[in-house]
Model the fold of this input.
Amino acid sequence: MTSSLLIGKTALVTGSTSGIGLGMARALAAQGADIVFNGFGDSTEIAQLQQDVAREFKVQTAYHNADMSKAGEIEALFAFAKDRFGGIDVLVNNAGIQHVANVEDFPVEKWDSIIAINLTSAFHTSRLALPHMRAKNWGRIINLASAHGLVGSAGKSAYVAAKHGLVGLTKVTALETAQTGVTANAICPGFVLTPLVQKQVDARALKEGLSNEEAKRALLADKQPSGEFVTPEELGALAVFLCSDAAKQVRGVAWNMDGGWVAQ
Done:
């Protein structure tokens, strides 16, 4: 069922071919937004995903395979979106990668990639989206910053640094747009059972000789007091709220949805 909150608006969700990004895209499409998908995956599956979302929510969809670590490809993505839809009204910076190692062992190329995709890409997308948003005096920038944008975890130096930086970028963008109809906010999820987190579960199961379900429970027990994963659908609902008029004075917030993680 499609609602009317975002009819006539276009949303770009980076990293939206699976996981949190797909949940965000579906939630925004359900409100009537046309969707620009971005991410990697099988081309046939992505084409089917576009068709399914377009049919289910009666919106237009498009896809661009920009590598979010490359400024030139991000610029091409925005040129594509402008040509197809006129510009981006809702920007969700969701693309992210992870690597776990102690600081002294952290591969330099992994550090550079994580910073590029998890942080620098959001600068490039924001700088390219803002002129259109300012011209219309309406826009929403939503940065997926993780609980690791608020607290640290051992072994995740690049990811934590990038996500803390993303919270900082969110605050500055919010201040620079404070007297306009454009808002910028960050959502900080706890553990969501995405392919990225499933890799951590698999690694823990192998290392500790646990079943997959036991490894999931152990992972959640370490950080997330609720003992439950956050879902992409719950995060999508929060994104929809941030797009609504009710949230027009929510500016520069780092909103954690984390089962109590950072309350400890």
